[in-house]
Design brief:
50 residues; 68% helix; 0% strand; rod-shaped
Length: 50
Amino acid sequence: MSEPVQDPQAEAKARRGRNIALALGLVLFVVLVFVVTVVRLGASVAVRPL
């Protein structure tokens, strides 16, 4: 394991950076799933009977 960080501000900054990276990854995954879903459904959504 790494040595514990002594500076609370540095620790908070590192945590914030990890949280932002995790949030961006999650958003990109959701967008990817949405795009793949739209591409796979394609035109069949437009011709769906009411």
